[in-house]
Design brief:
This protein has two helices and five strands. The chain is α+β, with helices and mostly antiparallel strands. The chain has one domain. It has a five-stranded antiparallel sheet, covered by helices on one side. A hairpin with a 2-residue loop joins β1 and β2.
Length: 99
């Protein structure tokens, strides 16, 4: 299943709202999509931009869609994910699981 455009738009707004304007040059929240999975990322500017211009990305959460339902996963360990909530609205899952 392809992630609907409406969900992509809402995800973009959700990510933008997480970081105050004055911090966006150093930190951003973003997402990537692969099939029916959306990975939410904490992106940080390089500490020494003169050495490397790439931002670092740390996974914060993953959303998976299956048969019209979404499941929210949190990272565990080095490469694992643990399901923490399910529902029909992926943004409500993200908002309900914020620390």
């Amino acid at each position: 299943m392809v992630v609907p455009e409406e969900i992509r738009h809402r995800l973009s707004q959700w990510c933008t709202a997480r970081i105050p304007d004055e911090e966006r040059r150093q930190r951003q929240i973003g997402y990537t999509i692969s099939g029916d999975e959306v990975t939410i990322l904490d992106r940080r500017a390089p500490t020494y931009p003169e050495l490397n211009t790439a931002w670092s990305s740390t996974p914060m959460a993953m959303l998976r869609s299956e048969n019209g339902a979404w499941t929210l996963y949190r990272p565990v360990g080095d490469d694992g994910w643990q399901g923490v909530a399910s529902g029909t609205d992926p943004l409500a899952l993200l908002d309900g699981a914020r620390d």
